[in-house]
Every structure is written in structure tokens, then in C-alpha cells.
Specification:
The complex is a heterodimer of chains A (112) and B (254). Chain A has 112 residues and is mainly α. In chain A, helix 1 packs parallel to helix 3 and helix 4 runs antiparallel to helix 5. Chain A is globular. By secondary structure, chain B is of the alpha/beta class. Chain B has a single domain, classed as Rossmann fold (3-Layer(aba) Sandwich). Chain B is flat and about 80 Å long. Classes of the chains: A mainly alpha (112), B alpha/beta (254). At the A-B interface, helix 1, helix 3 and helix 5 of A face strand 1, helix 5 and strand 7 of B.
Chain lengths: 112, 254
């Protein structure tokens, strides 16, 4: 029993740096995506943020940014899914909520 | 005591670290909206006219036709046909009398004051032969028609306003106060109907309802209220026929 607990603890400790590495890699993609989006290169930004969500699927900011880019490209179905994923990961994030509310207002107008 | 201070400092530091780590960037975006209706088959649009009723201060048929034509001229790729506004109310009444088989004329429908009064005229929109004839006359355009009911509104409701209060030290504060108030305004109800000028068939229709209320002591001309309410409907109307770009801002997160 003790040995099993020890193995679990060792595995958890070993996995922690891996998760941190994934987040670091994803963060680099997110940062690059922001810099290109600010220059109007939204396709490149989408590629970067999609990579970020593949590297670290738990990165709410990457899903939020991806949702904004999809919205800008007019792909409202994908935008909704990405916003919902971001909110699922960080339900208390006021900025994601605000983005989602603004998106919903437009989306509702098109389906009215 | 010291433990509490340490704990307080700890939570303040945690908040500052969180704020420093959470970088956010505001970015302008333009969301393209695809049209609800495929109008590729049409080069021209005829805003034919509306069955309108409600207050007599605004001619709903004339004003709506004029407003939609001017909006379509600037914000749609379709060529707008300039023509006299169709007297659809008369057409609907004549249609009913014609259906009575040449005997005694059918009773004239009552003036349109409320929603149910519109029912007596609605049959005109389903008259495929009539719309086909109009379509042939104007070289088979997309036809826009429908109903408009612009009625006065009066409602007692709770409103929130700000009130100045002074405490025992003479300090001024502004507090929200909820009061029951009589409000007056207008309601704009109706339906936009899009008809295929080649077949006379209805392609799409959408209903709308918008209301505006003012303080009872405020005098707002009916025509101003009508345009205020139509302003809210125009984006939805235009997005039926042409792609639109909605400007806004969002927050990118790091």
C-alpha cells in the first residue's frame, strides 16, 4: 500500500514539470498569436492559438483568443465552441465572460 | 493580530501577482455576418409597401417604405426600384370583395388599431398571382412588403433614479432610489415579408417588436419615436439581404 502511494507521488512529481513545459510552450504560441493578431494577421493567429490548445488543452486564454479569431473570421459555430471551452476551464474569468456575452449578442442577432 | 496582518499582506500580494501575470489586450474586431437570404438571383429590389396601422401621427406605410429604400440604396448591392408605394390595404380590401362572388360587397374591414385588426388584410401576402403580376411589371425583382403597427404605449413601472442624500456630518452621497412611475411611449410591431418577384411565393418572413418608453412629462414626437425604433430593426433587416460587418472590441488573454 505504501509502495503504491510512493509510486503515485513520484509519478505526480515527474508529471508536474512536463505540464509546466507544455504551458510554457503553449504560452509562447499564444504570445506570438497576439502579436500577429495585433498586426491584422488573423489566419496566422488562428494557427498559433490552435497549436497552443493542442499543446495544452487546459489553457483557457488560448481557447478565448481562438474564439475571438473565429469570430473575426465569421465562423460563429467554432467561436461559440471555443468560448464555451474557455469558460468551462475558467468559469470565473470575467474577461472571458465579457467576450462571450458580446459574441452572444451578435450571434443571437443572426439567428433571430 | 500579527498572523492576521501577515495573512492580509499575503492575499494582497497574491492579488498583485495575479494581476501582473494576467496580461490582457483589447483588440478591435469586425464580425462578418452572412445574409439570411440568398439573393444572388436578384439584381433589383422593390420595397412595395406595407399594411400599416396604429397611431395616425405616422404614416407607417409611407415612412417604412421610404426608410427601407434609402437604407437599401446605401447598404445593399441590389438596385432599388423607385415607384409609387402600393396601397396594399386597398388591394387587400378589393381582393376580399372580389372573392365574395359579385354579390353583396363584403364588409369593409375596420381601421387597423391593434394586432388583431391586421388579420383581415394578411391574405394579400399569400396572393401569389398578385405578386407575380407585380413582379412582371417591375422585371421580376425581390419584393419587400409586410405589416407595420405603430401604437402608443402607456405603462406604470418601477424605475431606478439617483437621489442625493446628506448624512449627519453633511457629507453628500448619491443613492439609487426605486420609484413607481407612469411612462409613455410607443410600440412598433410587424413583419417583413420577402417575396420572389418571379414566382410570387414568399421566400422569408421575420416578425419584430420594439418598444420605447419615456417619462410621462417628456414630450417626444411620434415620428422621432418611430425612427428610434426603426433604427433598432434596420441592422436585422439589412442582414437578411446582404452581408454585414459588425464592429466591436474583445479582450485577448495571455
Amino acid at each position: 500500500m505504501r509502495i503504491a502511494a510512493l509510486i503515485v507521488a513520484v509519478l505526480a512529481l515527474a508529471a508536474a514539470p512536463l505540464a509546466a513545459d507544455a504551458r510554457d510552450d503553449a504560452k509562447k504560441q499564444v504570445e506570438f498569436g497576439i502579436s500577429v493578431a495585433q498586426r491584422g494577421l488573423w489566419r496566422e493567429a488562428i494557427y498559433r492559438w490552435e497549436r497552443a490548445t493542442q499543446i495544452d488543452p487546459t489553457y483557457a486564454a488560448a481557447h478565448n483568443n481562438l474564439a475571438i479569431a473565429y469570430e473575426h473570421e465569421g465562423d460563429l459555430t467554432k467561436a461559440r465552441a471555443a468560448y464555451e471551452k474557455a469558460l468551462e476551464l475558467e468559469p470565473g474569468n470575467a474577461l472571458i465572460k465579457q467576450n462571450y456575452e458580446l459574441f452572444k449578442e451578435i450571434n443571437d442577432r443572426t439567428t433571430r | 493580530m500579527i498572523a492576521r496582518r501577515v495573512s492580509l499582506l499575503g492575499s494582497v500580494a497574491a492579488m498583485l501577482i495575479a494581476a501582473a501575470c494576467t496580461n490582457s489586450f483589447e483588440i478591435p474586431i469586425e464580425t462578418p455576418i452572412r445574409p439570411k437570404l440568398d439573393v444572388a438571383a436578384f439584381q433589383r429590389v422593390l420595397v412595395a409597401g406595407f399594411i400599416a396601422g396604429g397611431t395616425e401621427d405616422v404614416d407607417g406605410n409611407l415612412e417604412t417604405t421610404r426608410l427601407l429604400r434609402s437604407q437599401l440604396r446605401t447598404k445593399s448591392e441590389l438596385r432599388v426600384i423607385d415607384s409609387d408605394v402600393l396601397p396594399l390595404q386597398d388591394v387587400a380590401t378589393e381582393g376580399r370583395n372580389g372573392d365574395s362572388g359579385g354579390g353583396a360587397a363584403a364588409p369593409v374591414p375596420p381601421p387597423i388599431k391593434e394586432q388583431k385588426d391586421l388579420e383581415a388584410y394578411e391574405h394579400v401576402f399569400a396572393n401569389i398571382e398578385y405578386w407575380k403580376r407585380i413582379g412582371e411589371e417591375y422585371q421580376q425583382p425581390l419584393i419587400v412588403t409586410g405589416t407595420v403597427l405603430f401604437t402608443p404605449l402607456q405603462r406604470n413601472q418601477i424605475v431606478q433614479r439617483e437621489q442625493e442624500v446628506y448624512d449627519s456630518f453633511g457629507r453628500r452621497r448619491v443613492v439609487p432610489v426605486r420609484t413607481y412611475q407612469e411612462r409613455k411611449g410607443f410600440s412598433l410591431d410587424g413583419r417583413f415579408i420577402f417575396i420572389d418577384g418571379r414566382s410570387g411565393a414568399t421566400l422569408h418572413s421575420e416578425s419584430f417588436n420594439e418598444q420605447v418608453l419615456y417619462n410621462a412629462n417628456q414630450t417626444t414626437p411620434a415620428l422621432s419615436s418611430y425612427f428610434e425604433l426603426m433604427d433598432r430593426l434596420i441592422p436585422s433587416f439589412l442582414s437578411t439581404l446582404s452581408s454585414q460587418k459588425i464592429k466591436g472590441t474583445r479582450i485577448l488573454l495571455q
